[in-house]
Each structure stands twice: as structure tokens, then as C-alpha cells.
Design goal:
The structure is a homodimer of 396-residue chains. By secondary structure, chain A is of the alpha/beta class. Chain A folds into 4 domains: 7-28 and 180-319, 3-Layer(aba) Sandwich (Molybdenum Cofactor Biosythetic Enzyme, Chain A); 30-51 and 155-178, Molybdopterin biosynthesis moea protein, domain 2 (Alpha-Beta Complex); 57-140, Molybdopterin biosynthesis moea protein, domain 3 (Molybdopterin biosynthesis moeA protein, domain 3), CATH 2.170.190.11; 326-395, Beta Barrel (Beta-clip), CATH 2.40.340.10. Chain A has 7 helices and 29 strands. The model of chain A has no long low-confidence stretch (mean pLDDT 95). At the A-B interface, helix 2, strand 16, helix 3 and helix 7 of A face helix 2, strand 16, helix 3 and helix 7 of B.
């Protein structure tokens, strides 16, 4: 029926794509500046090169003292100096004296407590302390947050601002992260013109280049290159020459004539066939010059859905991103489906955990897809569902 | 007790910050290329300039016919031409004839159905059709996805790949989006050295610049500038001269000496005081040359927490980003807190909906914060909680 030699279930094709992409998606470490690492994933644990805090410092503005000197209060002590939060190597504190100290400043050796300024009065030369403090109070010991050699961050962590902050606090400027896969995007078809052009009858705007580029970025990868080629195989060969970790194509793989991807790649061992899904039935894979090529059908909804089903989950895993939320909802509408194919309808979340079908089933309904926020999954064996029936949905 | 003239609840200060920032955060529209608009928020509804599909086209590879000619089947019709998916103005289809047609190709006037190739056999000159089709079958009518003038996308929509796809499909290359607030970040303190430097005793690495820059980006805004200044007010004046929609500062607002932010801004009308929270008590705001300045305390945990409490929610709203998830969890540990201040402890999510305290309460514990994934909120009036008690948590 398909005219192709092969047909597969979604799971079979997904497993094949995962296996084909595995080498390209194997974590490749690289080192980047900490200030550019937001959202990236650590490729190795980071050990602290320093103690944090770096040195014993004051938690308060006040006076550094020996706790023994302030055991009975009130007590008046001579002020013998001042330590501010800046480069400083204060002399040791002599017994029976106090040093004015600022938050974050070095606590002098000999001092073992800081008296907050609000528990003191001072005439400038002496300080009268109204409340004593035990040894250690308001003193931040060196290394009490983290010791040199301790794990600062684990491997496999998606870096948020607080993680970058602790790297900076430890003086680290570069961090080893998993490299983002570089994805080359090739849309095919002599009927396509770029948005902004003036199409003549028979031409349509290329939306798949925009859709795939954005979807690749949203899945945590980078766009290595973007090209549109006509039905001329020479153009496709040129586009495939651009360096990338993997290639995505749209169009040119079904059974009609002028199917440039199939024409070029099938004689060179491409795996071309039909997957039991709708939209998105025609699917292919190939390897070109050692680089995996994942080929989607060209109808816009088919392209976008194929990426979401077969490639996005793999990219998100590499990027440490959460997968699309899948949850069961109640259909607001009756639906019909084709036996033997898993159908991906497009819907919108509605109140009470329901889902409203928001688009016809056609694979050209790109506005219908944009108006949707859920995919509604109708299993292969189901041909009709009633309003109120339970369905699986995937968040878009 | 604070030594400052004012003290406020978290809600009072948050409302003040929101009011101060409202003009800076009022949606300012700007137009950007569609290919750069992923994650941005539309500032106006987008109306379609075209019908989608642009023209009546075939849903299948097969033969365009008059449905009346294939009512009794099998029927054999002469093939009078071919229409591929490319620029083409096919002649009208004469009664009793068929035209070979590709998916996406223009359906000739006169034809009202497409017979899929799998329901046909052909010797090249004629096609024998084994199954008839009704008028309209496998024909995509012009405008059946969307009509010119219809709303393509609503205002206030955070743009995902499917939304950019429909803009491209309609030929649109520029989209009006809400401008991202430009945030200037100034860290203060003569004790700070940049990560990568070699600190002497009394110096610490500046982690707040890194933390705030990343947090601003994560909240959907952009970093207009980043500076570190010492305790010299002239440096702060220079840093404040950089154009931005709002300024964030860290450090220099508490009651000690060498508090450069307070020293410069308080005589010029800054609002300086204490908020009933821990960490993060000292807080200030100012306006400098018409630009709002939000001043956080300098301890790293205080800085990061202050951003999360007072500024991040406002930026996320502008960016159309979800707010941090807040949910109640069971404490795994007993905790104590200070009466009269809302305490933000740092914890990690644990199984069974529990939360484990993952850090001491000190505002310098930047590694403890990095090791946490939840803030644990202890209300002002609570001084102790037991293991098993219920607490509010915010996701980091």
C-alpha cells in the first residue's frame, strides 16, 4: 500500500533513530566560560579549588573580641583598630581589647566572637558591650560552606544562576559542559519560496526551516546550518556537505516523482518507509559521509510532529531539559481515526482536565497546529472515541 | 534595632518595588525577525496577510479528476498532463480526462477530487481508477486552514516553534514582540575581585555579578551592562551612567561604614531600610537619572534571594514565563527560626513530598544554596517547626 519496501511502528522507528543518533549525541565535553554556561549541563563533577569562605570573617558589623573578655557584661574595652571588608592582614587581637569590624572583614587571630554593633555603645576610643557572646558567634569559619577538594557541583547538572554563582565564588571562570549537538536543517522542494518573497501560483512559503530551527534550539541543540534546496540532487549534495553532528531534512521522501531526498539517498542505502502514524507516515534515515540524516515528510504538521516524536526527546535528554508533559485528559469532542495508525490530533487544554480538538487532521493545517497546545494521541487500534473518553495528551 | 529609619514587611517592599519598576517594565513593542523570536511574547495580535493554503492543492500523489467521471469504477481516463509541486498554472481539466498530480500541487480548475495513486493503475497514457471519490476528497481548499485577515496569533503569546512556523507559512518575516527589559548590574565592595584573579587576605571573588546576570537572563530580560565598583562613589556614579531600563546593585546598603550605595543614594532620596526577612534584611531603592535602582544586600545568598523575591516575578511576567512553582511539603528536619522575620531556608526535594534542609541559614553559604533546589519558607510568627510539619516551598 505504501509503495515503499518497509513499514514500521512508531516504537520501531524511534528505536532506530535513537540508535542511529547515539554516536552523534554521546556527551562530548567542552569547556566554556562560566558567564556563558547558563542552562548548560556539566560534563564532570567540579571540585572546589578553595575553601569557602576563603578566610575567617565577620558575619556582622560590630566589634571583634575574645569571648572570655565579654563574659560579664556590661564591659568596656579599648578599641585598638578597625578591619574593613577589603584587603587586610590585621594584627592579632591582644587580650582585653576590641577591634571595630565590618561584615565580611577578616577576623583577627585572637578574636573568637563578633559583638553586633547594636549591642554596643562607643565613644570612638572605647566600646561598651551590653551583651556577651560565646566563642564562634557571628564568626564565619574558613571552609564552613565548603572545603577545598569537596564537590562543588555534580556531573550532569543543568546549570542555573545559583550554580554559576558558586563557581564564581570559588574563583572558577571556565566549566566543563556537554557540547550541544550541531544540527543542520535542509528543507527540500521546488515549490518552496522563503517568507518575504512573492509566491506565484504553485509556490508556498518555506515554514519548515523556521519550525525546525526553532524546535532544535528549544530542545537545547544548536543550528549548524540551514538550507533550502530544490528538487535538484546537486543542491542537496552541496547542503549535505556542511559540517554537523546530524542532519534533519523535510520533504522529498514519499512515493511521488521529484522526491529529491529519496532519489539521492535511497540508492546509497537510505532506510525509506512508512511509519504507522498520522500525520507523518513517510519517514527515512540515512548516513551521509558518516553523519546521520533523519528525513521527515514535508507537510508542515508532519515535519513538526516527526521532530517532536523522533528527535526532540533525544536532544532534550542531552540538554538536561525536561521532556514534554504527557497526561491523560477527557475528550470534549467525539473523534474518528484510521485503524492501524497512531493518530496525533491537535487540541487545546480546557477546564476540568479536558481537551478540545482545535484543528482538522490534515497535515497541512499549520495554523491549526499553532492554535493548539496539546497533541491528542489516538492509538492504532482505535477508530472512534466519544466525548468524555480518556486520551493521552502531550504538551506542545 | 536596624539603625535605618524604616522597616517593612516583604509584601510592602515587594509592592513598592513593583510600583517603582512598573514604568520600566510596561510592555514596549518592537519588531524583530521571526527567526529570532523564539520565546518572545507577541505585543499585538498578528492577522494573516494571506489565505492558508495559498491555493487549492492536492493532498496526495495521484490523479486530479472530476468526481462525476469516476462515479462508476473501474473507469479509465486519458492522462492529459501533469502538475508537480512547483510554480505552475495548469490548464482547466476537460471532462473525461485526468491529470497526474503531486502532493501540494495546484489542483486544475475543473477537477474537484484527487484519486490517490494506490487506487490506480496506469500505462502512462491512461489511468484506470479502481475507487471513485466524492467532490472535495483529497483536495485542500484555499483558505481552509485560515483566511486572510483572520487572527494568526493572539497578543501576549509566548512564541514557540509552531507559532513561528505559521508566521513563516504566511510569508511573514517580522513580528511585533514585547521588548526585553535591559538590566544593568552593579556589584559593590572594595573586597571583591573577579573570578580568576588571585585574592589576598580580605578579598573574595565577586559571585553576585555572575549570579545576577544569569538570573536576569533566566527571567527573560537582558543584561545591559555589568560592572563592579569599589567603595568609591565616583565609580558608582560612572556605572550608573550606563543606559538601562533598571539597575540592580548588590552590597553597600547596610549600617556599617564604607557602604557606597547608601552613601551615594540616601542623600539623594533613596529609600533605605530593613525588610522582615532573612536572609536579605537590608533593602533599598532609588531613582537615578529617571531610572529605577533596586539595591540588594551584598551577601551572596541575600543577593540571590532578594532578586528571586522582589524582581524575578516581575521580569517573568513581562517575558511570559511561568513563575516558580510553590507547593507545600513536609519537613524532614526540625528547624528553628527568628520571630518577626520570614526565613528562607534552603532545601532539597525528597521522596514522598518531603523537603530536606540542605544548608545552614547563613547568608554567605553560597555552596549550600547551589546544593539546594527549594526555598523553604518559615513564616514570621513561627520560631520552631518539627519534622513532619508542613511548609511552603518555592522551586529554585
Amino acid at each position: 500500500m505504501s509503495g515503499h519496501g518497509h513499514s514500521w511502528s512508531i516504537e520501531e522507528h524511534a528505536a532506530h533513530v535513537a540508535e542511529l543518533l547515539a554516536p552523534a549525541l554521546a556527551p562530548r565535553p567542552g569547556t566554556i566560560p562560566v558567564d556563558e554556561a547558563l542552562g548548560r549541563v556539566t560534563s564532570a563533577a567540579v571540585l572546589s579549588p578553595v575553601d569557602l569562605p576563603l578566610f575567617r570573617n565577620s558575619q556582622m558589623d560590630g566589634f571583634a573580641v575574645r569571648s572570655a573578655d565579654v563574659a560579664p557584661t556590661p564591659t568596656t574595652l579599648p578599641i585598638v583598630g578597625e578591619v574593613a571588608a577589603r584587603p587586610s592582614s590585621p594584627p592579632d587581637l591582644a587580650p582585653g581589647t576590641a577591634v571595630r569590624i565590618m561584615t565580611g572583614a577578616v577576623v583577627p587571630n585572637g578574636a573568637d566572637a563578633v559583638i553586633p554593633v547594636e549591642d554596643t555603645t562607643s565613644d570612638g576610643d572605647t566600646v561598651t558591650i551590653s551583651r556577651g557572646r560565646s566563642a564562634g558567634e557571628f564568626v564565619r569559619e574558613r571552609g564552613n560552606d565548603l572545603r577545598a577538594g569537596d564537590e562543588l557541583l555534580p556531573a550532569g547538572l543543568r546549570l542555573g544562576s545559583r550554580h554559576l554563582a558558586v563557581l564564581a565564588a570559588a574563583g572558577i571562570t571556565e566549566v566543563a559542559v556537554v557540547a550541544r549537538p550541531r544540527v543542520s536543517i535542509i528543507t527540500t522542494g521546488s515549490e518552496l519560496v522563503p517568507p518575504g518573497a512573492t509566491p506565484v501560483l504553485g509556490q508556498v512559503f518555506d515554514s519548515n526551516g523556521t519550525a525546525l530551527a526553532a524546535a532544535v534550539i528549544a530542545a537545547g541543540a544548536v543550528v549548524a546550518a540551514r538550507a533550502h534546496v530544490t528538487d535538484d540532487p546537486a543542491e542537496l549534495i552541496a547542503a549535505l556537505a556542511v559540517p554537523a553532528d546530524l542532519v534533519l531534512t523535510s520533504g522529498g521522501i514519499s512515493m511521488g516523482d521529484y522526491e529529491v531526498v529519496r532519489e539521492l539517498l535511497e540508492p546509497r542505502g537510505a532506510r525509506v518507509g512508512h511509519v504507522a502514524m498520522q500525520p507523518g507516515g513517510p519517514q527515512a534515515t540515512a548516513v551521509w559521509d558518516g553523519v546521520p540524516v533523519i528525513c521527515f515528510p514535508g507537510n508542515p504538521v508532519s515535519t513538526q510532529l516527526s521532530f517532536e516524536v523522533f528527535v526532540a526527546p533525544l536532544l532534550r535528554t542531552v540538554a538536561g531539559l525536561p521532556q514534554a508533559v504527557r497526561e491523560r485528559r477527557q475528550l470534549s469532542d467525539a473523534v474518528v481515526s484510521v485503524a492501524g495508525r497512531r493518530q496525533f490530533l491537535r487540541g487545546r487544554a480546557a477546564e476540568g482536565g479536558r481537551v478540545v480538538i482545535a484543528s482538522g487532521p490534515g497535515s497541512h493545517l499549520v495554523a491549526g497546529l499553532a492554535a493548539s497546545d496539546l497533541l491528542v494521541i489516538i492509538p492504532e487500534e482505535v477508530t472512534a472515541l466519544n466525548a468524555g473518553d480518556d486520551v493521552e495528551t502531550w504538551a506542545l
